[in-house]
Amino acid sequence: MKSLLKDLKKLKDVYYETEKCQLGKELTLVLKLLTSEEETDVHDYASKHEQGIAYLYSVKRETLARSIIELNGNKIPDVIDDDSGKVQKHIWIRDNVIKGWSQILIDEIWQKYAKLLIRMEEKIGASISEETAATKE
């Protein structure tokens, strides 16, 4: 059973990739794909706080807040200790970084996240196709 659990935990890292985004001369972000739990949390938060087009904007902000793992070469810890106390990373990024961005900037970074997502979906699809072909032989 321990071996099975160890192998299942490895699955988490099989398709883990990041995307480095250069925005202008002064801002570099590293984005990661969200876990299924994080994606659920994003939609849960947005559905409780927004409706209509505001829901879409909220999903983008919440996704990016969870996706950003590095800012200008500095890895961002899961919990940030600031003047108000300890705050979860995504809440701190949303409230202290993303809230000040224009919707145009959010959309630009969202497109970079979408490209990462598409690249991973293609990689997974190719892997499944290869495995299926190998099984048929």
Concise account of the structure shown:
With 137 residues, this protein is an alpha+beta fold. 61% of the residues lie in helices and 19% in strands.
Structure description:
The protein is built from five helices and six strands; from the N terminus they run αββααββββαα. It is an alpha+beta fold. The strands form two sheets. A four-stranded antiparallel sheet has the order 1-2-3-4. A two-stranded antiparallel sheet has the order 5-6. Helix 2 (36-49) packs antiparallel against helix 3 (53-67), helix 3 (53-67) packs across helix 4 and helix 3 crosses helix 5. The protein starts with a helix and ends with a helix.
Q: Indicate the structural class.
A: alpha+beta
Global shape: globular
- Kindly state the percentage of residues in helix: 55-70%
Pattern of helices and strands? HEEHHEEEEHH
How far apart, in Å, are the first and last alpha carbons? 31 Å
> How many E strands?
6
Name the beta content range. Answer: 15-25%
